[in-house]
Specification:
Layout: E1 2-6, E2 21-26, E3 35-39, E4 47-49, E5 70-77, E6 86-87, H1 89-95, E7 104-108, H2 121-124, E8 128-129, H3 131-139, E9 144-147, H4 157-160, H5 171-175, E10 182-185, E11 197-204, E12 212-222
Length: 226
Amino acid sequence: MSRLIDLSTPVRTGHFRWPVERRLAKSHDAGAGQATWAGWNVHAFTHMDSPRHVDPEGFTTDAIALDMTVGPGAVLDVSDVPANTPIELERLAAAGAHLQPGDFALIRTRWDERASIDTPDFWLQAPWMTAEGSIWLRERGIKAVGFDFPQDHCIRFFLTGEARPPLPEHVTHFHLLARGVIMFEYLCNTGALRQARNQMIGLPIRLPDSDGAPARVIAVETDDTP
């Protein structure tokens, strides 16, 4: 037996930060069948980052093969972290004792249960990753990582209007993404996960020569997975 857990945030109109243009390109009323046209920033909602997002010499989505975003996953449960608090290395390492080289690491805060992604507090009150924790993940040899919260402290500056800091302060982008670890952002529903290890499937839209792409991310839990 297996369970499929969808970790993807729905793409919907009306979001205060991420505008989505959606309209009917064809309609039944016009006698042409129905076809929806939609457009939004590829770094909105659940999506995948490729290194080109932060490095002008980094590889784009063309270089990301399926085995780079699909495979064994490890859930690092740090959901006890308080709001507006860094996730210190000690907490992350304790949660990731079962992490193995080649894993898709899922950093679980269950933040979507504490703040709605439709409100500013989702960004302004979120916990965040530290540089030390990001380096520790990379040194464990992970191939991909997913976050269910806005993982760099300075991401909130998009709302506060503070000046965007240099790349090293975007700690996960600098220490992970820029060094080839594929990142998935704005996951949700991680509270539905029951097991520490699973199979992760991250399938970005096949958008060539891009710095990122919208993605559907699911976890597969089986009875024989610890």
